[in-house]
């Protein structure tokens, strides 16, 4: 059984967290290694000194080109904008005349007032009005750390992706296997079983596909049996029609000759003709129902009308007929003004079919219930017929053609038939789509 611990979501979450932790540890180790390599390089080379000397030369060139004096020393801001990550202090006659942090100086600082400004840290530049001491500091190796950080991000991301891909490889292989097995089913081989592996959502999907395969196979086998039963029914009905038709023709020929003088014998022949005609009607009804089940022709629906007006007379006649046959009928009809569209011929055939089934299978000691029902969203309305089934009743309609005829006719009218059977209880509901007022 699938649970939260075995779901794809939880497994993927755990995989991502594990990959993130491993990538973070790899990033930290790589940062230490690269930091050590950069520090070792800087200690063993004069890179910083060379860069500082290049900046001092650039500063002197800027002062010379722009003819800077102590009075206009603040024009150095133009040079500082071209020099990222640089701090500059300029002293003249022992007083601070320029500080890049504050862009102005009040002369309160003097050379040697701070241990950072020792003479070995100072350089000199030539201003227009004399020589000045320069304290220049720059972060010359920032690009090393920037490039190192980019490399660390790329490699750590690669480690993260590789771990995730390795973790989901099994799932991907299973998905591909399901894909190939589905293609086998699409080819028509319904005997091929879908592989169910694991207890996650994919396993549930595979189990559902396999159940659908089994259901589809059973349905196709059932359809094949049903088709064979329909063909057998038509064959038998066509064959059985010959016997009553032959008898009917004999009796009518006798009546045509008019040789009978006995009135009782005449009535006997008329009664026989009536029974044979009724038998032919029943057989023809079966043929008609079969044509409805297998046919695909479209039908025309009548204009939308109130459901009560459509069914009131028909259901009243049906209830009265059942009561004449010894059945109790309970009516629970509330029409609520719902409007539907129907085909009157189909409705008559459906009600006749339901009545016939009630007479065949319903118990007379339990009332037959006829009522209305409405969908919660008020987009459909229905009529239900409920009765108790006789125990040990013969299956006189083994092909179930009657119910299937009702289902087919309801589908053609845009509705559907809902059949419920629980032990001795049988209930059939006819659902019609409601027509909204314009």
Describe this structure in words.
By secondary structure, the chain is of the alpha+beta class. It has 4 domains: 8-43 and 143-185, no CATH class; 47-140; 214-294, Signal transduction histidine kinase, dimerisation/phosphotransfer (DHp) domain (Helix Hairpins); 305-433, Histidine kinase-like ATPase, C-terminal domain (Heat Shock Protein 90), CATH 3.30.565.10. It is built from 9 helices and 11 strands. The chain has helices at 8-43, 47-66, 77-81, 142-186, 201-257, 263-294, 307-324, 344-361, 401-412; strands spanning 86-92, 95-99, 123-127, 130-138, 305-306, 329-332, 339-340, 368-374, 380-388, 416-422, 425-433. The strands form 3 sheets. Strands 6-8-9-11-10 form a 5-stranded mixed beta sheet, covered by helices on one side. Strands 2-1-4-3 form a 4-stranded antiparallel beta sheet, covered by helices on one side. The protein has a two-stranded antiparallel sheet with strand order 5-7. A hairpin with a 2-residue loop joins strand 1 and strand 2 (95-99). Helix 1 runs antiparallel to helix 4 (142-186), helix 5 (201-257) packs antiparallel against helix 6 (263-294) and helix 8 runs antiparallel to helix 9. The two termini are 51 Å apart. It is found in: Cell membrane. One of its GO terms (cellular component) is plasma membrane. The chain crosses the membrane at residues 144-168. GO terms for molecular function: ATP binding; phosphorelay sensor kinase activity.
């Amino acid at each position: 059984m699938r649970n939260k611990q075995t779901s794809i979501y939880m497994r993927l979450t755990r995989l991502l967290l594990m990959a993130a932790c491993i990538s973070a540890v790899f990033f930290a180790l790589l940062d230490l290694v690269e930091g050590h390599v950069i520090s070792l390089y800087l200690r063993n080379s004069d890179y910083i000194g060379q860069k500082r000397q290049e900046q001092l030369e650039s500063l002197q060139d800027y002062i010379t080109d722009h003819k800077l004096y102590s009075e206009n020393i603040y024009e150095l801001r133009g040079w500082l904008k071209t020099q990222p990550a640089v701090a500059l202090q300029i002293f003249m006659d022992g007083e601070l005349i320029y500080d890049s942090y504050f862009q102005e100086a009040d002369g309160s600082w003097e050379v040697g007032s701070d241990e950072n400004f020792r003479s070995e840290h100072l350089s000199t530049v030539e201003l227009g009005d004399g020589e000045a001491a320069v304290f220049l500091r720059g972060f010359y190796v920032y690009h090393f750390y920037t490039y190192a950080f980019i490399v660390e991000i790329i490699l750590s991301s690669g480690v993260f992706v590789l771990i995730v891909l390795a973790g989901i490889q099994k799932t991907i292989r299973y998905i591909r296997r399901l894909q190939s097995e589905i293609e086998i089913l699409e080819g028509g081989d319904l005997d091929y079983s879908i592989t169910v592996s694991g207890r996650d959502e994919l396993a549930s999907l595979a189990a559902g596909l396999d159940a659908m395969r089994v259901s589809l196979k059973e349905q196709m086998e059932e359809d094949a049996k049903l088709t064979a039963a329909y063909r057998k029914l038509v064959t038998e009905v066509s064959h059985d029609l010959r016997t009553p038709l032959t008898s009917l023709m004999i009796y009518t020929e006798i009546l045509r000759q008019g040789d009978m003088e006995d009135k009782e014998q005449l009535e006997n022949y008329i009664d026989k003709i009536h029974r044979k005609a009724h038998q032919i009607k029943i057989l023809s009804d079966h043929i008609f129902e079969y044509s409805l089940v297998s046919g695909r022709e479209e039908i025309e629906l009548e204009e939308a009308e109130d459901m009560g007006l459509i069914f009131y007379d028909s259901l009243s006649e049906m209830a009265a007929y059942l009561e004449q046959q010894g059945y109790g009928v309970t009516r629970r009809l509330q029409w609520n003004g719902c409007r539907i569209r129907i085909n009157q011929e189909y409705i008559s055939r459906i009600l006749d079919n339901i009545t016939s089934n009630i007479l065949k299978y319903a118990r007379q000691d339990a009332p037959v219930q006829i009522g209305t029902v409405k969908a919660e969203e008020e987009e459909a309305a229905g009529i239900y017929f409920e009765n108790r089934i006789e125990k040990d009743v013969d299956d006189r309609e083994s092909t179930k053609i009657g119910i299937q005829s009702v289902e087919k006719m309801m589908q053609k009218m845009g509705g559907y038939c809902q059949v419920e059977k629980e032990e001795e209880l049988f209930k059939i509901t006819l659902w019609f789509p409601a027509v909204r007022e314009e």
